[in-house]
Amino acid sequence: RGPARGGAARGRQRWRADGRALRKLPVHVGLVVTEEEPSYADMASLVVWCMAVGISYVSVYDHNGIFKRNNSRLMDEILKQQQELLGLDCSKYSMEFANHDKTGQVLNCQSTLKVLSPEDGKADIVKAAQNFCQLVAQQQRTHSDLDVNMLDNLLSSTHGFPDPDLVLKFGPVDSTLGFLPWHIRLTEIISLPSHLNISYEEFFSALHHYAACEQRWGK
Fold it and tell me: What is the pTM of this model?
């Protein structure tokens, strides 16, 4: 147990140092799987690495909603890997869900996780539109007030997460397949062949690439 704990401590120091060494660290990373067979263990590794380097918000998404339907299985794997890789007291951690049917809980004091499905992005835009219509009905707004900034405010107040700075897209499909369609217009998207058996080096290489990029502003 001693050597394992020492290895976890060395890993924590390395990952924190890696995060600090980057010129630019994303605040919110979206992990988007376009492959048909998602791996709970590999996705959990990616989430824990995000936490370890200091990323504040992480979203997990697959276009079939498999991770969301089986979120307890994903969470079990994340908690297991937190224990193995980071040596944390896992009794303090739980999951935050994007849909408001569940009670929102932070994953830990530094990082918050949401597990998303295609319905979440659509529902967020629908809710924003309903809120705007309500404001018009109450004569607090007019139809001409609806612009990008106004919709942004309605979306962020509904969703509670900042827009993703970076999306890591896994798989051969050249699309994010419905992942928060409105929110990612300014997002840097980096494609990786697969999340299966992904290594920390591949993950950190993507972060390094992001840190070297200029903001693309929707290009």
Answer: 0.74
